[in-house]
Amino acid sequence: MLRWSDELRHLRLEEIGERYARYRLYLPEAERAMVRSLSRYGQISPVVVCEQEGVYELIDGFKRFSAARHLNPIPKLSCRLIEVDERGAKAAIYGLNRVGGRTRELEEAWIVHALVREDGLSQVEVAELLSRHKSWVCRRLALIEKLVPEAREQLRLGLLCPTAARQLIRLPVGNQKQLLPVIRREALSVPELSGVVDLLTRSSDGSQQAYVLQQPREALAQDEHAPLPAQDPRLSAAANLVFKRLGGLNAQMSRMDNWLQHYGRAELTPRDQTLLAPHFDRLSRQATRLAALCQDVLSEMEPSA
User: Fold this and answer.
1) Exposure pattern of 158-193 as b/e (b: 16+ CB <10 Å)?
2) FRET pair for 197, CA 20 to 30 Å: which of 77, 87, 156, 191?
3) Residue 78: beta bridge partners?
4) How many angstroms separate the first and last alpha carbons of the chain?
5) For the segment 184-228, what is each residue's pLDDT rounded down to a tens digit?
6) Which of 174, 172, 148 is nearest to 160 (CA)?
7) Residue 230 DSSP symbol
8) Are strands 55-60 and 16-17 parallel, antiparallel or unpaired?
9) CB atoms within 10 A of CB 20
10) What is the distance between the alpha carbons of residues 259 and 219, in angstroms, rounded to a whole number?
């Protein structure tokens, strides 16, 4: 259990260390929004610090801390102090962000990796410390350790999403290095990436793997598990019209999924976000309604013979 100090401290930025910042993702747009909030409203809630070797180290409030640097004059920050050791500090970073619903899979993986490799805890001990199952700890650790260094760096920079990283770790190191540039070159969606990984794991020789890497979508189209063509002679004219619409809709959804996962909000200016917000809201509502209708249709359909 965290031990909180009842007294708030008001510290200058140079009095606060950032040694734990490496466990948090840098999100430029979120930081810019925080600068605007601090300028307009001031600091609403205190940041959280712990004392390590005579230095106040930041535990929670990294965006507020970074945003404060852009203000003139630079204010002191209101801080709450918790009493934790090195292991407890990492657990607190995870716990405080989890409560706020802001934790991200990659940040969790960095914390788990540090607890295991830097602090010498077993996976079972980490699971107990973070109140998670051992399999969760194992998956987070694999997200870091089974990836090639190039993929880790792309994860850190936001160029590779955790879902795509989970597909990559199914491959040997050599195949990961070969596939990374293909993901960016072809802008593969996560479902497409999953299919390409399946093909690579089933390839029996180097020539087959080379073909998959050079022409991933053609290879997927030739795979027996690939989607059906635009027309199916077994279907009626009315059913083929629905079939065509489904294919187009799935393709559009795949592209949108790819954009959100690989690029997403970081590309949008504040004005872009304001103008696009109603359209995303409409898409979200329509997708929810469409998903429910699809389930109704599926429940009415007879199982295939």
Assistant:
1) bebbbebbbbbbebeeebbebbbeebeebebbbbbb
2) 156
3) 10
4) 57
5) 899 888 888 988 998 998 887 788 899 899 989 888 877 755 554
6) 148
7) S
8) parallel
9) 22
10) 22
Strands 55-60, 47-52: pairing is antiparallel
Could you tell me the pTM of the whole model? 0.56
Strand-pair category, 16-17 with 77-83:
unpaired
CA–CA distances in Å: residue 134 to residues 67, 141, 187, 200:
36, 11, 34, 29
Residue 220's contacts (CB-CB under 8 Å, 6 or more residues apart) are 192, 195, 196, 199, 226
Tokens of 303: 């199982």
Dist. CA 123–CA 91, nearest whole Å:
14
Interatomic CA distance for residues 235 and 246, integer angstroms: 14
DSSP one-letter string for 33-58: HHHHHHHHH---S-EEEEEETTEEEE
Model pLDDT for residues 252-296, shown as the tens digit of each residue: 776 676 566 544 566 677 888 889 989 989 998 998 889 888 888
Predicted confidence (pLDDT) per residue in 9-39, tens digit: 999 999 999 999 888 876 777 788 898 998 8
Strand segments (E) across 40-178: 47-52, 55-60, 77-83
Residue 13 DSSP class: G
Q: Which residues pair with 305 in a beta bridge?
A: none
Q: Residue 255 has which token pair?
A: 């592209």
For residue 57, give both structure tokens.
């180290």
CA distances from 238 to 234, 235, 243, 244, 300 (A): 12, 8, 9, 10, 18
